[in-house]
Design goal:
single chain, alpha/beta, Arc Repressor Mutant, subunit A, D-Maltodextrin-Binding Protein, domain 2, 3 domains, five-stranded mixed β-sheet, three-stranded antiparallel β-sheet, 12 strands, globular
Length: about 300
């Protein structure tokens, strides 16, 4: 194996292909063209004088040398990410860009007034808001700050619990006018429910109340939380929502308070290497204060 310095771009392309399993899949995931990825992998193999990938019926398979290199390349990638985090965290300016990720519900309903206030108070800070129900990788700078509905457990993160958001069952007023307002559990189960397609959140919540059902219990299912709530508001059936959101909506009505729903925890996570950067700390403080006002309301 040639021990001379290896171009990091070649290793990055190798990582893309090794993880994706094929040149075409790697091109879609990375945004790098397929010819470029192929050329980089061939150049890396020529440099190291041994094959790293071999053709398989499903795409590209790692050779033993490729598997060994993959582990080392991933370690280099993680080290590079830590260096980038440390460099970003060293900035003493209360200006620059902060990338915040949050679920679509939190981003849609809760963050706009918080960020509007922050913009008035800190015009030098620019915010990139990523509304996604998929967790972003903070180590690799997919986001600087994450608001999550679960406690992050990966290393090198500072986590802070911001609030417990109460939940309730709701349905559109016009749906209840037509179908009746449930006074008992039996009444409730006669109504239509809007469920989730893949998530088992509602199934677990119902099981905690002694209601054992399958996904077929829900005649209408949607995984997107914003669309899920729109379906409830339109009169498609019963669904769960944060009390702070639903109580300000005249189109819906809370029902079945005898059903106990656990509150939804809201956590803030920031990479340890970034938490002392002034712009990160300021946005973190603004988010924490805004969510505290939300919980109090």
């Amino acid at each position: 194996m040639d021990a001379r310095a290896i171009d990091w771009a070649l290793l990055q392309s190798f990582l893309h292909v090794a993880r994706a399993g094929s040149l075409s899949a790697a091109a879609r995931a990375s945004g790098v063209s397929q010819p470029t990825l192929g050329r980089h992998v061939r150049a890396l193999q020529d440099h190291l004088r041994q094959p790293l990938l071999s053709r398989s019926p499903t795409g590209q398979a790692l050779t033993p040398a490729g598997a060994a290199l993959l582990a080392e390349a991933e370690a280099m990638e993680a080290a590079a990410a830590r260096i980038a985090l440390a460099a970003a965290g060293a900035s003493a300016r209360l200006e620059g860009t902060v990338r915040v990720t949050a679920s679509r519900i939190i981003a849609h309903y809760h963050l706009p007034p918080i960020l509007a206030r922050l913009r008035r108070e800190e015009p030098g800070i620019q915010i990139e808001l990523v509304a996604s129900d998929q967790p972003e990788n903070l180590l690799f700078r997919e986001a600087d700050i994450a608001l999550r509905m679960f406690r992050p457990d990966s290393g090198d993160l500072t986590v802070q619990k911001l609030a417990d958001l109460p939940l309730g069952l709701y349905a559109a007023c016009r749906y209840l006018d037509r179908s009746g307002r449930p006074e008992t559990l039996d009444d409730l189960l006669k109504l239509d429910f809007v469920g989730y397609d893949r998530s088992e959140l509602m199934l677990r919540a119902m099981a905690r109340n002694g209601i054992e059902v399958t996904r077929d219990f829900f005649p209408l299912r949607c995984e997107d939380q914003l669309v899920h709530w729109a379906l409830v508001r339109a009169g498609c059936g019963v669904g769960g929502m944060q009390v702070g959101i639903a109580e300000s909506d005249p189109a819906v009505e809370r029902i079945a308070r005898f059903v106990e729903l656990p509150p939804l925890p809201l956590w803030l996570a920031v990479p340890e290497a970034l938490r002392h950067a002034p712009r990160i700390a300021r946005v973190r403080q603004a988010l924490a204060a805004g969510c505290a006002r939300l919980a109090a309301a």
